[in-house]
Design brief:
The complex is a heterodimer of chains A (259) and B (314).
Chain A lengths: L4 E10 L2 E11 L4 E5 L6 H7 L10 E9 L2 E2 L7 H7 E4 L11 H12 L5 H14 L3 H4 L12 H14 L4 E5 L7 H14 L4 E5 L3 H7 L2 E7 L6 E8 H6 L4 H7 L5
Parallel strand pairs in A: 3-8, 3-9, 6-7, 7-8
Antiparallel strand pairs in A: 1-2, 1-4, 4-5, 9-10
Helix pairs in contact in A: 3-6, 4-6, 6-7
Chain B lengths: L2 H37 L19 H37 L2 H15 L3 H27 L16 H25 L3 H9 L4 H30 L2 H6 L20 H8 L5 H43 L1
Helix pairs in contact in B: 1-10, 2-3, 2-5, 2-7, 2-10, 3-5, 4-5, 5-7, 6-7, 7-10, 9-10
The chains are: A alpha/beta (259), B mainly alpha (314).
Bound molecules: adenosine-5'-diphosphate and magnesium ion.
The site of adenosine-5'-diphosphate has 12 residues of chain A, from α1.
Chain lengths: 259, 314
């Protein structure tokens, strides 16, 4: 199931350092939203607040609200563990569990939720998730081999399979292709296009062509200078951002005049 | 190369070489001294007829129970100590707030600096009386298991007490090595687990333990190595005898260890008996050398392959 994300006036701090300031945006279900902007402007930081992964870093905290279909992630009593089961994440560097087989990697998250799953259900879930990640045909004969034996692009798709196996509502991706070759990158982009049918997808990317290829909406973040907080500068349809943005800074950035 | 570098290199290679020479020297000394006692005819030789070596037909029947006592007491220490040590390490690396983690780590290191004799005294005056009720309980309810069987001791002078003290003594080495390895768990895999919606404990099971498995194993083996060498402290706590016993709750079923046996009997022994005691020392040397060697080997092998993997992914 795909859900709407509503961010209201969000500030993110690392201890006393204000890293991201005053972000408000609405992300529609069944869309792909790209975050672009120069390094250090807080894209990853902001992305991680959408499933409370920032809390893993000591001292990181937020002020403001993030609503998923109306429910505030930061309401008192909300368990971040449950939030993360609802909002999955794929990282910049593929991180399959190295000692686990491909099959066990896919099932890792599911086994946390429901320990006792009949083997036949597990088999079909593994197949469904790997097909969902466009990886099934490449690995179906070696499900018992370690995930670390796959190529970088395959590992990243394995991580996507692992993330969708727990049926999240939202999928966050932080530069998922930045460590991959062009062919693997295209494979992942095709996959994102398909996943959009079922999930709300947010992707951070350094690659503007990628943003134009995969996303419906684009958010441009920027910082005024080092030590200043990152801000959301402009958020609009991807076509608009890349052809006639309304802010000069956005235009400078997308036309490659800086950053 | 600058002269100061050259001097330093000579000094450091020199000391490294010296260690090898000392080690080889000790081994040679043990072998040469142990030889006569090992090959002697124990049933016929008048020098071996009395005292500690009385009644044994060969060196092997003499050293057998001692090896058993040494291994058995060390294993008890390991079973009691290793899980706690690993738990503390995990608490320090993944649960405690940073300030508390620092203090705890420091305390554990401090524990390593406490002299053995202090542990021995602590065992006599604190542990022995403390465990008497637990021993009664174990004997009453689990007495059908050989380990807990026999006439339960009312002084606390038991293998369990000795093993407990030994467990505390091996705690620091196991904790500090495991902690280092836990801390090295790649953030990448910890975050992978957390992003799937694991609790912290599930994250530890998914990411930390698989990464640290061989490290934990070698930390435990190094703990075993430490225990083998520290069985002296046990001699202060229990009154053992040369026997093969698995009982840990009795006054009379306590198996003697090599180190304690040698220290106890050395003063009243004749030259050949001293050689026999040295021969038991050789047995201890071989055992603990083997254990330490395996532990180091596991560390270097996994450390090495980890480095290789890193280099490969670059
Ligand atoms: N773990 C952290 N602790 C403290 N500051 C951090 C941490 N991670 C990122 N920052 C700071 O937050 C700001 C935004 O970083 P980040 O979100 O990584 O930017 P981006 O992903 O856009 O490159 C930067 O100034 C960075 O130095
Ligand atoms: Mg980033």
């Amino acid at each position: 199931m795909s859900k709407r994300i509503n961010v209201r006036d969000l500030d993110v701090y690392y201890s006393d350092f204000l890293a991201v300031e005053g972000v408000s945006m609405t992300i529609e279900p069944r869309t792909v939203t790209a975050f672009i902007g120069p390094s250090g402007c807080g894209k990853s930081t902001f992305l991680r607040t959408l499933n409370r992964m920032h809390e893993v870093i000591p001292g990181a905290r937020v002020r403001g609200e993030v609503l998923i279909d109306g429910d505030n992630l930061y309401a008192p009593g909300v368990d971040p563990v449950l939030v993360r089961r609802q909002v999955g994440m794929v990282f910049q560097r593929a991180n399959p569990f190295p000692t686990m087989s491909i099959r066990d990697n896919v099932l890792a998250g599911v086994k946390l939720n429901s320990r006792r799953m009949p083997k036949s259900d597990q088999d079909s879930l593994v197949e469904r998730s790997l097909r969902g990640a466009n990886l099934w045909n490449e690995v179906k004969d070696r499900l018992q081999l370690p995930g670390s034996g796959l190529s970088g692009g395959q590992q990243q798709r394995l991580c996507i399979a692992r993330a969708i196996a727990v049926s999240p509502d939202v999928l966050l991706m932080d530069e998922p292709c930045s460590a991959l070759d062009p062919i693997s990158t295209l494979a992942i982009e095709d996959l994102i296009e398909e996943l959009k049918q079922d999930y709300t997808i947010v992707i951070v990317t350094h690659n503007m062509q990628q943003a134009t290829r995969v996303s419906d909406k684009t958010a441009f973040f920027n910082i005024a200078g080092s030590g200043k907080p990152g801000r959301l500068i402009e958020y609009d349809d991807t076509a608009t951002i890349f052809t006639k943005p309304s802010v000069q800074a956005t235009e400078d950035y997308v036309s490659g005049r800086f950053g | 190369m600058r002269p100061s570098d050259r001097i330093f290199r000579v000094l450091s290679t020199g000391s490294a070489g010296l260690i090898m020479v000392i080690l080889a020297g000790v081994a040679l000394f043990l072998i040469i001294k142990a030889g006569p006692a090992i090959v002697a005819n124990w049933s016929a030789n008048p020098d071996l007829a009395g005292g500690t070596t009385h009644g044994y037909t060969s060196f092997w029947s003499y050293v057998g129970p001692l090896v058993w006592g040494t291994l058995f007491s060390s294993l008890i220490a390991l079973v009691l100590g290793a899980p706690v040590a690993i738990g503390i390490a995990l608490f320090i690396s993944h649960y405690a707030p940073r300030r508390l983690a620092g203090v705890l780590g420091y305390l554990v290191d401090l524990l390593a600096a406490v002299p053995s004799v202090v542990f021995g005294l602590w065992g006599i005056f604190v542990i022995r009386p403390f465990i008497i009720p637990f021993q009664d309980w174990l004997n009453h309810y689990l007495g059908w298991i050989p380990l807990f069987s026999g006439q339960v001791s009312q002084t606390g002078s038991t293998m369990l007490a000795g093993g407990l003290v030994l467990a505390v003594m091996i705690l620091p080495i196991i904790t500090s090595i495991s902690r280092e390895i836990f801390l090295q768990t790649p953030k990448l895999h910890e975050e992978a687990a957390l992003a799937l919606g694991s609790t912290r404990w599930e994250m530890v099971k998914l990411a930390v333990f698989p990464y640290a498995r061989s490290g934990i194993l070698s930390a435990t083996l190094l703990g075993l190595g430490r225990a083998l060498g520290e069985t002296m402290a046990i001699a202060m706590i229990i009154s053992p005898a040369l026997l093969f016993s698995v009982r840990i709750l009795t006054d009379t079923g306590n198996s003697q260890t090599i180190a304690a046996n040698a220290a106890l009997n050395f003063p009243e022994s004749n030259p050949l008996q001293r050689d026999a005691l040295i021969a038991t020392g050789l047995a201890l040397f071989v055992i603990s050398f083997g254990v330490n060697f395996i532990a180091r080997w596991i560390i270097s092998r996994t450390g090495g392959s980890r480095r290789l993997r890193k280099a490969g992914s670059r």
